[in-house]
Amino acid sequence: MTNDEHVHGGDPERELKRLGLATRDVLDFSVNVSPLGVPSEIKAIWKELLAEVDRYPSVDGQGVARYYQERFDLDPARVLAGNGSTELIYLTPRALELRKVAVITPSFHDYTRSSLAAGADLLEVELKAEEDFTPPGVDILKEVMAEADGLFVGNPNNPTSTVFPRQLLLDLAASFPSKWILVDEAFVQFLDQPEEVSLIRQEPPQENILVFHSLTKFFALPGLRLGAVVGHPNTISRLRPLKEPWSVNRVAEKVALELIKCADYEKRLSKLVCLERPRIFDRLQDISGFQPFEPAANFLLARWTLTDQLDDLLRFMLGSGVHLRDCRNFPGLQDNFFRMAIRQPEENDRVLSLMRSCSDHYL
Ligand SMILES: Cc1ncc(COP(=O)(O)O)c(C=O)c1O
Fold it and tell me: CB of 313 within 8 A of CB of 304?
């Protein structure tokens, strides 16, 4: 696969076509966005938001930056807003002139793509199925850091739904002060105890740690694009001059200010995911043909073992209106791995019951 052939989830039409199925409505479990949908506080002001698109946004996404300052009590100099965290994941290897980047595999493909686009070479650090995709120990990571000038880590990691201990990343940063620890916390708010994992509020901030954060997953706003990179003021001031102006649109800026008021939504969503996550894992463990890996985030990685074709499962599910994420295009996951999002209890029940029927069908 070349750098540009990687396929993301969230495109059920393409998958229906690939599997020779007729177009239909589907429940999309292939993307990991909040099952509660757009917060009602935002829906209530849709019209007002559109009324202002005849004006430019601020040059550097002040509205989104203010969300981070207020929600996480951060000094403005520590925050740079972006058109989703993706913009900042691409800006960073270029701005820091990284020459060799270590990436965890399997993980979000855009760490690789952004590093290659900046002209860097890659070093891969493998998470293994036979070790339940647990993070490598500090010794292995130190060997890797000795070779690279930066390490990209998803925390929690997508698609394995595993967590790197905060102290491990802090130790690495302290051991290699001239190298970069780039931590993608796009899904951190879905964890049981985000504050025990997140480095967004580290005090004092380390100059060589950058944290990428997203508001598109947790608040079900992937089409709006809003996120930030958070770090030491000296590091943020290296990135700021290289970011394009006006990349955060005016609607996103206004929405971000409203998200500060969505504390109730945050509580409801965290509770839902924390209850559903172990329930789905336990139920899936009891269905023949499924090998789930214990999830920490709002999605679960599993392997289909009943036939040697993952398409048997994907076709059965999609033909019944459920889209799963085919993970065979991630390194190390070719052997029939798939990912499913954690959604509302009744939606999860529907998926589990279809999975049981699929298992009965192929047994
Ligand atoms: C691990 C991870 N990080 C970052 C992103 C990008 O998020 P955003 O919508 O903020 O650009 C994604 C999107 O799927 C993701 O899976």
Answer: yes
